Amino acid sequence: MTRVVVVGGGIAGLAAAHRLHTLRPGLDVVVLDQRDRPGGKLATGELAGGPVERGAESFLMGDPAGGPSAAVRLAEEVGLGPAIVHPTPARAAVALDGGLRDLPAGTMMGIPLKATDSAADDPAPAPLLSPGGDVTVGGLVRARRGDAVVDHYVEPLLGGVYAGRADHLSLRMALPALAAAAERTHTLTDALAEAVGASRRTPGAPVFGTIQGGMGRLVGAVAATLPGVRSGVTVRALHRHGAGWRLTLGSTRDAETLDADGVVLAVPAAPAARLLAAVEGARAVPLEYASVALVALALPDTALPELSGFLVPATEGYSVKAVTFFDRKWAHLRRPGVTVLRASIGRHGDEARLQHTDDDLVQTVRAEVAKLLGMGALPAEIDRAVFRWGGALPQYEPGHRDRVATLRAGLAEHPAIAVAGAAYDGVGIPACIASGRAAAETVLAGLEQWTP
Question: Which residues form the Amine oxidase domain (predicted)?
Answer without folding.
Answer: 11-444
